[in-house]
Design goal:
Elements: E1 7-8, H1 9-12, E2 26-29, E3 33-37, E4 42-49, E5 56-60, E6 65-73, E7 76-77, E8 81-85, E9 91-99, E10 103-104, E11 115-119, E12 126-135, E13 142-143, E14 152-156, E15 159-161, E16 166-170, E17 176-178, E18 181-183, H2 196-199, E19 202-206, E20 212-215, E21 218-220, E22 228-230, E23 236-239, E24 242-244, E25 247-248, E26 252-255, H3 273-278, H4 296-299, E27 303-308, E28 315-321, E29 325-328, E30 340-342, E31 345-350, E32 354-359, E33 363-369, E34 373-376, E35 379-380, E36 392-398, E37 403-409, E38 413-415, E39 427-429, E40 432-437, E41 441-446, E42 450-457, E43 460-464, E44 467-469, E45 482-487, E46 495-501, E47 505-507, E48 520-522, E49 525-530, E50 534-539, E51 543-549, E52 553-557
Parallel strand pairs: 1-3, 2-4, 3-5, 4-6, 5-8, 6-9, 7-10, 8-11, 9-12, 11-13, 12-14, 12-15, 13-16, 14-17, 15-18, 16-19, 17-20, 18-21, 19-22, 20-23, 21-24, 22-25, 23-26
Antiparallel strand pairs: 27-32, 27-34, 28-31, 28-33, 29-32, 30-31, 34-35, 36-41, 36-43, 37-40, 37-42, 38-41, 39-40, 43-44, 45-50, 45-52, 46-49, 46-51, 47-50, 48-49
């Protein structure tokens, strides 16, 4: 995208907010400009003239924003996407938009050619596409598979035809395709397409993530080999509607689905650029307040907490909120299976990657042990402003007999007493305590998790944050010391890899964030693929055979937990 000459919808098109009368629209000549739509802004009733031979980008940077009644007129000849979404939160509505005149780019393959709509990997907003007509774009109609890492895409009465790669490219568990159509026929859009096999793509392409919902929609493959492709572990539930052609992958569940699709434009969806710009085909029920306008009560209190690691050392963190909290994948963060969530509290560890969480309520406590930093809604916060540096209390209560013990935490631990630890015959070394009691009580404060309590002589009662615990329940979980990161975020093509260790290796971020569930671990060997994302593992032992096919970066950190 060309960023020079970028304008903002709120300033360059002041006075356009609100519904317009039919045929009341402004014509904008494409000159390579970027039109920015910020938080809460509306861009509507525009005819984008692409017959100039140049391009325009509508860049959606803020949530609770709307693009409505916009028509792109003429065969596009340029690069990039017409609509690009980077909004980090909130709801975005794109309604009554015509992108049906297609695009071409001579001398380049469809993979690197232009596309219609792109949901950026840094976005994490909830998208609604309603009454959108997208045809003949070489590099996807709706490129929205990045919702597998956060946010969502909902398609309502949309229409796609002859789009390269795919029309509906989805991946998130909250993604939905409702009352919509996509198919291929024999239309050729010009020399930039490279013939049939490149000129037509998958009507639906489901990427690995949670299950996508499809209702009363109609798809046909035409010249393309597949009407729907479920990539890797991608899954979908389709109810009603019809699909004609092959389905690649085993993850489609069908209910009352026929094989005779109806491939007409859904009612209310525009069939020309002028019709879209004038609002003539817009659903009258949505001309006022839209789905993108969210009541303040619906979003009040929802915040994003990002823990940003540092390659200089491991960072352990812990925080608590007085509301709900869930893991997120915003800003390239991973989902780490070792992060512990419960009752509004979270503890985890990062090295040179990120963890992210969405939460409601107030941040009540925060502990950071290491060089990493924490940001809340993009602003760095000082842990000292949120509760105690060492939030947990541990008591060892003697029962009258000499008792020796050892305690280990995944953080920092200190004796909670006025006496010097040496006077208490207590040895503290980083995250480990060795001491003894008879009929007294020793108290400690620590950060992180309690990982081991061992009695070498005698026995005592142990209290964690005021609750008595069973020491035998601690120490079973092995915290593997080394980190392996395979980062494909800076690459254009997939990278496959295989690595063997002579010890144990486990995924650090499985599931919807970055690791496909069809990546395999067996007998100390991992095989997987990264495609513009990041895979991470914890392991013990030494690396053995390592093969890499592609351009992903590889980082190995020995003793990452206790450098």
């Amino acid at each position: 995208m060309k960023l020079a000459g970028a304008t903002t919808a709120a300033t360059a098109f002041a006075g356009t907010v609100g519904a317009a009368d039919e045929a009341d629209y402004e014509t904008i000549a494409a000159q390579g400009q970027v039109i920015r739509i910020g938080q809460g802004e509306t861009f509507e009733n525009k005819l984008i003239d692409l017959t100039t031979g140049d391009s325009v980008v509508l860049l959606v940077e803020g949530g609770n924003s709307t693009i409505r009644n916009v028509g792109f007129e003429g065969l596009h000849r340029g690069d990039g996407f017409m609509i690009s979404i980077t909004a980090p939160s909130g709801d975005v509505l794109i309604e009554n938009v015509y992108l049906g005149d297609g695009s071409t780019k001579e001398g380049e393959s469809f993979v690197h050619g232009p596309g219609a709509v792109f949901y950026h990997k840094d976005a994490s907003c909830n998208m609604t596409f309603r009454h959108c007509n997208v045809q003949g774009w070489p590099n996807n109609g709706f490129y929205c598979s990045n919702t597998a890492s956060g946010g969502s895409a909902h398609f309502d009465r949309c229409y796609g035809k002859n789009n390269g790669v795919s029309t509906y490219r989805v991946g998130g568990g909250d993604d939905e395709i409702v009352d919509s159509v996509a198919y291929n026929d024999d239309t050729d859009y010009g020399p930039g397409w490279g013939g049939y096999t490149e000129a037509h793509g998958r009507p639906v392409w489901v990427w690995p993530g949670d299950t996508v919902s499809i209702e009363n929609s109609h798809f046909a493959d035409g010249p393309y080999p597949h009407a729907m492709v479920l990539r890797g572990s991608g899954t979908a539930q389709m109810s009603g509607g019809a699909i004609e052609g092959n389905v690649q992958g085993d993850g489609l569940e069908r209910t009352d689905v026929s094989s005779s699709p109806e491939l007409s434009v859904p009612d209310g969806t525009p069939t020309s650029a002028v019709e879209a710009a004038s609002g003539g085909a817009s659903d009258s029920t949505t001309s006022g307040e839209t789905d993108a306008t969210t009541d303040e009560d619906d979003t009040e209190g929802e915040q994003l907490l990002l823990v940003e690691g540092d390659s200089a050392d491991v960072t352990r963190y812990e925080f608590a909120v007085d509301g709900s909290v869930e893991q997120a994948t915003t800003d390239g963060a991973t989902i780490d299976s070792e992060d512990e969530l419960g009752d509004g509290s979270v503890r985890g560890v990062v090295a040179d990657w990120k963890d992210a969480f969405r939460f409601e309520g107030e941040l009540s406590s925060l502990t950071v042990d290491g060089p990493g930093r924490v940001l809340v809604d993009g602003e760095e916060v000082d842990p000292a402003d949120y509760g105690e540096e060492l939030p947990h209390e541990l008591e060892i209560d003697g029962r009258g007999a000499p008792t020796s013990y050892e305690i280990t935490v995944d953080g920092t631990i200190e004796l909670d007493a006025d006496e010097d630890p040496d006077d208490e015959a207590t040895t503290i070394s980083g995250s480990t305590v060795q001491s003894s009691v008879t009929d007294s009580t020793q108290e400690f404060r620590f950060s992180g998790a309690l990982t081991d309590v061992t009695f070498t002589d005698g026995e005592a009662a142990v209290f964690l944050d005021g609750e008595r615990i069973d020491p035998a329940a601690y120490g079973d979980t092995e915290l593997l010391p080394h980190a392996l990161v395979i980062d494909g975020s800076g690459t254009d093509d997939p990278t496959s890899y295989a690595v063997t260790v002579n010890g144990t290796i486990v995924k650090a971020d499985p599931g919807e964030a970055t690791i496909d569930t069809d990546d395999t671990i067996a007998d100390g060997t991992v095989r997987g693929v990264v495609d513009t994302e990041l895979d991470a593992y914890w392991f013990a032992g030494e690396l053995g055979d390592f093969s890499l096919c592609g351009n992903a970066a590889v980082d190995v950190q020995y003793n990452a937990r206790d450098q």
